[in-house]
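Human: Can I borrow your eye for a moment on a structure tokenisation matter? Separate attempts, laid side by side, tell us more than any discussion would. Could you pick a protein and write out its sequence and tokenised fold? No explanation is needed for now; the record alone will do.

Assistant:
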Amino acid sequence: MKSWSYLSFSLMVLFLVGLIDDLKEVSANKKLIFQLLIATLTVLGGTRLVSFHGFMGIGELPLFFQYSLSILIIVGLINAYNLIDGMDGLAAGIGLINSLAFFTIFILKAEMFLATLSLSFGGSLLAFLFFNFNPAKIFMGDTGSLIIGFMMAVFAFNVLSPGPEGLISYMEPQHLMVVVFAILMLPVFDSLRVYYQRIRKGGSPFQADQTHIHHLLHLSGLKVKMAVAVIYLANFVFIGFSFLIRPLNMELGVLMLIALSVGSYKAFTILFKPFERDPNEIRSKLTLTSEIKSDEQMENGRKNEKTLMENVVQ
């Protein structure tokens, strides 16, 4: 129970950091410091990645790498979900789908406490989604998106921990590495892709723009509801595909998932080429589109009203 005490405290601190940021805006550096402290506390409490379970020939990790890699994963997922929270219902919906995937795994692993926790978390996201789906009446803000990313990391680490004795073989951690990779892949892939493109163009990787996949889908002509539905579907496909290829070699499975995600993105850019436009045209379209959160909605949803572009672009 010690680890859950650490987790509860970490969640409370993360909630407060997100709430303060939503109300008065915390600098990116300060948020990163708090995230690192929260991740460190969580890892010290015992919730961490202990082994690669034979992936790339690596078994149990040295203690230093258990801590450092786990902290990196927690902070990375926290920010990946924060970045993907750019359309009504997107982060909450992806979090819901992933929570249900983790719930299924925990049930099959006979981890009833974790199954209950993941199902409860998914249920809270479903209730929130009723009011957050386009057109949204309430908004998640950093308070919600940071917590979703944190809980995804917690669930992933627990899936990759050894289960009870007598567990059916295909639910052992070494058979679930590919599935966990698929569950977490979509927001992580999108974040890494955007960072790479910004750096390649000589800019800061943390400079906000309109190159996230949800922006590109919207700019290609899809309405917000349809763009979000396409991303939901992609997430389902990745997870379903990972269960099918689970019996294969882990390295091969991960490569197949990466190829699927990169291939899907390349096919999309070839078919639509949504971002080959003048930046002023893009800004105008995002500002004028009625499907994106209106000024009146934001006034009702958040006290610290920002401009429409600041709420569309994280």
